[in-house]
Amino acid sequence: NLDGEFGNGNSNGFFASRDDSSEREQHGILSVQFEHFVPLVPNVWIRSNNIEYQGRSNLNSNVTVGNESFDTSSPVNYLFDLSHTDIALYYEILDNWITLDVGLGAKSVNFDYQLRQGSSAYRFTESATIPMLYGKAAFELPMSGWQVTAQGMALSFEDDRVEDVSVELGYNFNDFMQAAIGYRQIVIDVQASGVPESEMTLDGSYLSFILHI
Known about the structure:
This protein is mainly β. Helix content is 2%, strand content 67%. Strands 1, 2, 3, 4, 7, 8, 9, 10, 11, 12, 13 and 14 form a twelve-stranded antiparallel sheet that branches. 17% of the residues are buried.
């Protein structure tokens, strides 16, 4: 689910004006984690996030984005692409019924925001690699096969803030296979000069399958 404001002061609420703004969309995510026993060499975690909102929507009210105006006379074609890649280098501090990982990460984002209605068109693109702190904690419920996991990446610098956190409940069928259901939230709060001031939240539930090789 996507909510918030892109270009605050520069946009009169396109996300809120969509008449389908409450609809949820599905996205595919793939992650790979490599752990080893070599001292002082960090473990590696990579996650590919295919997050794209694309469609055609009527507006409940007129909006202005950039120098372009969009009205209620006809549907607006939109694309909001926040597909990105996460990577973290981390150390496993604890490894028993409580697992604790801490390290440094980065979020590589290729942001693309497009609107089109008749002769009115707006597009903003930006690519950036954001350094972040990384942490993960997992708690196994003894003799049950159940596991609670919390994972997050975060950065706060001056007035800018990026957070990506998830909490899940998983069940270990054996040493090689796990299924889990969870909730993930991404918050992007940008107020730096030269970038459209924005505050957006992407959140939703997910179902995951994990294979240990």
